[in-house]
Amino acid sequence: MFRDSIEERDPFLNPSKRDFLEKESLRTNMKIIEENASQERIRMEDFIEDYGEEEIEWDKKSARKLKERYEQKQLKLPEEERENHRIAKMLEKVIEEVAELNEWFGGEAVVIKTCDYDDYKNGVDLVLEFNGEKKRSFLAVDVCMAFDYERVAGKVERNLNKVKDEDAPLEVKYYCSEIEGSDGKVYKGKIKKAVPVVIGIDRNNAEELFNDCAELLQTKNKEAKTRVHTSKAQVIFLEQIKNQLELYKESLEDKRMLRKVEDLLYIIANVREEKKEEGIVNDGVDKMEENIERACKRHLSI
Question: SS3 of 14, please?
């Protein structure tokens, strides 16, 4: 079921039938991932000592309203766009489930799913934490499946403005690390002046990745494990992150933020080099990668 494409199984299907079966296969794989993936995420209740019950309840209420507004907005979208949003949410789960275990972002990277407040209020789906010998570095990640260039460009521009804005930078309010730092402590609290990036893959690559992840979660076989471990999605994400960090580096005047960006660029460069040495490459075209690269180049040429 998992590896053969619809066309390979029956090359004589008419296009409409093939499209229907491909969508059914995608939904089946998404259901498998949904049922087997971890549901862990940051718990706002764990921050009562930091913020107090009243503030946390207020933030929960704000998050619920924003989530309801988002869901109502989804209902008004064309079915194809709603499907893309569902795929993006599933891509978050996949990254959270397999990226850290398979060292997609390097052996020092930790992947944390944010709470609803930081998801819907601050637009941060995941946090990538890099725990170096002397300090921690963070990336605030927005997972996207928007293939329209202007929409992707809008996200890149929004993030660039947040990085450059010294008065109202991006903040992740609820964060707790899963590992001890070089100081022997587990970090808990806000991530101030977070560095935001948007990542994603196009539908074809998402379908391939979901197929591999569903097979891995259901069968645990070595072939699926190898395919997930060496997935080209990871080098697509790394390239997208690199392009955005390079844009920030060329645009920043704030020296503290610039140092954060340079530290992250150094980390990502090392991870990309590791992937090359392992022979993990993107051997095709990805629409999301093209759109992010184009958006970054547009700002660099202004």
Answer: coil
